Amino acid sequence: HKLLLLHILASLGPIGADGSHIVGGRDAAPQSRPYMASLQIRGQHNCGGALVREDFVLTAAHCQIRGQYTVVLGADSLTANEATKQEFRAVRSIPHPDYTANENENDIMLLKLSSRASLTQAVQLIGLKSGRMRADGQCLTAGWGDVGDNGTLPERLQEVNVTILPQRTCSRRWRGVPITRTMVCGVGAGSIQGFCSGDSGGPLVCEGGAAGVVSFSGRRCGNPRTPDVYTRVSSFSDWIADVLRNN
Q1: By the 8 A CB rule, do 171 and 179 touch?
Q2: Which residue in 130, 209, 210, 219 could disulfide with 12, CB within 3.0 to 4.6 Å?
Q3: Which of 107, 146, 199, 228 is catalytic?
Q4: Are strands 56-59 and 26-27 parallel, antiparallel or unpaired?
Q5: Annotated catalytic, 238?
Q6: Is the domain of 156 the same as that of 205?
Q7: Is 107 a catalytic residue?
């Protein structure tokens, strides 16, 4: 899955080959992001996610596939044989009922795991951030990137600092693409920093809680002219609570 949805692809063109991982980021310290999940198809990383309950991962609705994901927790490197890793099948995908594939809104989904994860130093839950997010707030996002652009993955989990943008600024930069109140925008500190294809579904972490879900970006990943856009988790807190309560 690409971060760009179809109408954005049509207007801005495809993601470039420089967008195969978190752009302008750094190696995350081992086990420092123990909530991170890798959603895999036949052993290949496709999307990211965050463990919000021992048997549920939060991700993006555009990451939904017809088949069944393997969900890997406790990983630093996706290729190394790490004793900290735990693997599960995603037995149920629950996208937001108002999500449609040709739109950016409501791009959020929960995956039910085949069994409950064992919480360890390398596998931990992340809480959901509630309340408003202030412009210029400092957050972080992480991911392993995508094999789809150039056939390679980063050696280890990558992370990058993110500064939250005012919604009006984000809307102005995106021009004809609607940026709604259920979205939040961010940019990296550098000229080209941010998420890219394959980081979809990963969490935007602010003050220790999951505040956003990686949704879409522009033609060139990490370019502040088209800021990175995340689904705003607090807009869907009631829906998330309802899914968890009933499953």
Answers
A1: yes
A2: 219
A3: 107
A4: unpaired
A5: no
A6: yes
A7: yes
